[in-house]
Fold each of these.
Amino acid sequence: MISNKKITIGVTNLSFHRIAASLVTNILLDMGFEVNRIYEHHEKNFQNLKEGKTDLLTSAWLPSSHGGYRAEVQKTVPLTNLGLHYKPYALWGVPEYVSKKAVTEVKDLLKPEVLAKMNRRIQGINPGAGISRFSAQMITDYNLGEAGYSFHTGTEEDCFSAFENAVANKEWIVVPLWKPQFLHYKHKIRELKDPKGLLGVVDEAVLLIRDDKKDLFSSEQLKVLDSLRFGNDVIAELDYKVSVEGMDIDKVTKTWLEQNR
């Protein structure tokens, strides 16, 4: 069915979010839509959805990471969740060479023998991300600040390069991360237990559509969008191909769809 209608989708400007958005974009193109992607940080994406600057928002993490943003939009703009792109969750991890006997949970970071080796600067991504909000709380609630640990927001590159540089030198480091993400495809990262539950729950990454934009789609097209299932491992692998191997994102996702749908 060729509709020749224009669709604008909001994309959180992080590599794995761009992967999910590219998968959705290819499906919309196959439906005959002209697709415009707007890349913004978390809060701005939801604001754009609320203001009608975007029709869809790809891979909203609900209920934990983005639930508050969704609730704010929902106060004035009815929304519907479609599909289940993957099941993301936030984590703190360490490289596999960090002694498991020494470090298995967050409170172990306070052990004298760990303090002697661990880099106490924890480098994150942008401040609006769930992992950033959770990590700042971790520093306080686990009394890590008193031991000299500090959490810093920044870019994806800041976070990933800090981790990879440490790994290259076999240094002990904590990385505030999430699944899916390409570092898991490249490295073995051991998750630290979080008894306080500050890192949230396992979310569901869904496609959000403004209810007043549903009439752009046929009922069959909405069913297709609601049937989309990719999974953490698929997103991580495609993210690796694009972010590390430098492959073209839309070609990578189109190839995967052709081979797997």
Amino acid sequence: MDKVLVPVEGLRPVPAVGCVCFRGDEVLLIQRGTAPMAGQWSIPGGRIEPGETAKTAALRELREETGVQAELVGLVDVVDAIFENREGSLLTRHYVLIDYVARWQEGEPVAGDDADEARFIGLSDLAGYDLWGETLRIIEAARVMVGGESD
């Protein structure tokens, strides 16, 4: 059974998107510049704006955080990212992450928006980036969706 936490008053799940963008045998990662997970590597993504579709948000966040243009291939999965306080007694944030897979079309990664760094990483080099287990799972599921090729 899942652990039940007391939420911060008024806390609601926040819809957000992630975009697994492939260029050949490389995946685009960003180093987060703001909380949550500041300093950690992840796929580009962020909150869905009011009136914006999830697909549009995924491509917008990809462009804002990396400067890269891509074509969406499909939906990979929906993941709950639930954060608690240091004591483990209070639910502080809850994101519902809608993760898409995309194929790179143009542009070299340049960190923008709330990313400190952006770069294409060889799939064989991912172990050196200390990614969240769910992020690794999503990248692998996305790779399978595109058939192991991304061009």
Amino acid sequence: MAVLQTLEDRFCVKSRLLGRLSGGIHRYLSEPKAVSVEEWVFIRLEDGMTRRIDAAPICEPGWVLDMAEERNRINVYLGIAPPQRELPLVADVLVQAR
């Protein structure tokens, strides 16, 4: 659902097209695979066939998504990962000694 929502929010994909794409996306996400820190996938416009982008060039219309970002979004939603992991350091803070 997170991937479909990203397609709808970011790329303005209409719901009737999402219905056609969801099967291919679901098959890809259901397959057992090693999860890596960086996982980019290509979703083919024609039928939703989803594959990992390795070295193979993309020669057809579709979308490229960062699945690691989608998994992080789901983890934050489920409460598994906090929404903020690191706080930026404040620059130019002076500490005066007495």
Amino acid sequence: MKNKLLSPLWAKSQSLTWQEDSQAPGEPYRHENKYLISYHDQDNLRRRLSPVLALDKHVKGGGYTIRSLYFDDYWQSAYEEKDAGVLMRKKYRIRIYNYQDHYIRLERKKKFGAYIYKESAPLTRAQVEDILLGNYDFLKHSPHSLAREFYIECVTNMM
């Protein structure tokens, strides 16, 4: 059954994301369909698909935990745009895997109708701590355009 994906903090069942690579003007977008499935269905799908699909590089012991910190501006524009169903929108997050700080990513997710474009840049724990303290200056000197654009968002949109 197709359904909206609940926040992982509240979801009682596993989520399955199906991705298809697509090409939208200018950027490689992909199309995702999200479904809520039971643990039983998850086990069946895992068994049936494992011969043809490779596991994600973060998998340890059959799975992994993702923790994300989402950013929004003073007016909660990202939340309001999602809630209103705005077709073109973006959001920023910092993500870690398996409670570890050796692989931290700043990510931006852009949505264009049903198509999604994701990009990321590495961060260190010290850089994340600086961001949380409101010290964004290091971002403007990053070799990653995403970090430089996030800097502009932080200082102009009162994140």
